[in-house]
Amino acid sequence: MSVDVAAIVSVLEAIGAAWQAGETSQTILSDHAQRVRLGCVPEPGQPSAQERERISQIRLGRHMRALAAQTAPGAVDWRNHDGGNYVTPIKDQGNCGSCVAFGVSAAVDANMRITRGLPLSHPEAGILQDISEAQLYFRNGRTCADGWDVPPAMSYCQGIGVVPESSYPYTGKDQTAYLPNDYAQVITRISQVRTLTDHADMKSWLEQHGPLVTYFTVYEDFQAYRGGIYTHEHGDYQGLHCVCVIGYDDSRGAWLCKNQWGTGWGESGYFWIQYGQCGIDATMWAVDGFDVLYSAKPSAATTLTGFAVHGSASRLYYLGEEQHVHELGWNTGWYQSDVTTRATGAPRVGRAPMTGFAVDGNDSRVYYLTDDGSVHELWWSGDNYWDNGWHATNLTAVTGADRARPGSGMCSFGIGGTASRVYYISADGHIHELSWSGNWYHGDVSALTGAPPAVTGSGLTGFAINGSSPCVYYIGEEGHVHELSWSGQTWRHLDVSALTGAPFATAASGIASVAYNGDSPRVYYISADGHVRELSWSNGWYAGDVTGATGAGPAAVGTAVTAFGHAGSNIWIYYLAEGGNVNELGWQGNWFHNDLTAITQSPPAAPVSALQAFGRDGTNPRVYYQTWDGHLHELFWESHWGQADLTGMPTG
């Protein structure tokens, strides 16, 4: 242990200091590790540490005289400004000299929220994301050992701009220097940078605009800071450190700062430092407005796909306003990631459905269409969120397959858990298969079977019987539900509606399916009377009226339908009723109905909302939809129904 904590405590007690020292997450580090984190390196021509301390002391006298003349002490804390917290949570820069990137990013993050009027408690807080410290620091080939200075970092934010942290996550170690794919669509760029050298100007800016950036001299005793108003009292010089100033308090005679050494140091990551100490107020830098301020808001009428990975971790994919694929993921908390920017070469999404599944239940596969009708795959191969694990493949280019028609339905699943199968509809209404078996292959399933074309607007749904034999369902031009199934040697076609005499599906009907007990198909669609209909196989095809069996109200015109099975023989179906209420039809030996919107008192869905549902841990339902304001909501079962606004929720 490089810092003598006992000696520091003894000195503070002897002089009656206004701050407390003790063991922290910093004091347990080696002297080298402590110094590595002090990565502020002034450029030639900038004041040295000693000069900054001298400047602060010279100005302190004028500052104190001004304080004495005040009628009342001033104070600002952007963690509680008019009841709102605009300061994002404490981070940890790790064993890397990237403090300048963190200090600057913290100021930009807070000023974004202040500019938009979106404190962390606001219903739309989640549309603003922290900017990427990794891009800001590593973009120009910098390493953790190099350090940086504040003016060039601020200039970078003003010139090129910075993508969200979710597009370029920070790892705490040296990272590759690159600009994320299609980065210009998700950039935040500040308008001007202000350099402040007068205490009154610094306070005025904090009061009227927002947090500032500064750096100061760190001595050994600062590593042991636990709380109070810091003044340097003991120990040797270690280096210069950059932080974000989020407030001040004249009654305490101190600046309030946000550090980036985790919550195991200081006052849960924050600290107070006395005016004039350690060069803290020799110069500060301000974010003066934004030329571009990126908001990660879902597009109106976004498409959705989702599933569970590793059994209990939710993954939801949606289309952002910039036509990027975004991931909302739950591990131990929600996070947001712009998958398009993280997958090199991934093009923007067209206005069409997405589909996806988890290979072996673990690794995400997401499929979507571009405006030219090409089918693209986004695939994950990595150990954790911070890996560069997203990749992109143009399956149409790889296979030479026919292009999809505009708005084509899509579905996908795995054979044997690993071999991808993707289905879509071409301009002539044919159903096409893209299959993976060591390489990608293409087949026109409609041509192979002589099946009639799909109606314009038909969805696609499917699964693998016993995990090995594909079954795909669509709606034909005559309103019939058709099956395309693989027998092990050849594709076959069946008009299921004709066999059962089931009512016609509406042209705009959603369609969903599950494999009951793994081997018995169940298909769900909407008939003209708004009823949810079932086509089921049990040694023969049968038609059923699930709405009639439960007494549920009719479905809204054009509603999406989604379904999944769990515990082998239980089935859950979700659809929208008139007015946007999310309704559940469940089978557990008998059919039952729930109005989940009424049960949870959640906002109704927009009329054109997509729906997605799956079982967490294979059992607990998760249902996702979009409201009128564009927000994505989750309805979840954990011994009772609950709901969450995922768009409004700040994500890590």
Automatic annotation (TrEMBL):
CDD domains: Peptidase_C1A. InterPro entries: Fungal_lectin, Papain-like_cys_pep_sf, Pept_his_AS, Peptidase_C1A, Peptidase_C1A_C, Peptidase_C1A_papain-like. Keywords: Hydrolase, Protease. GO terms for biological process: proteolysis. PROSITE patterns: THIOL_PROTEASE_HIS. It comes from the Bacteria. It holds the Pfam family Peptidase_C1. This is Cysteine protease, C1A family.
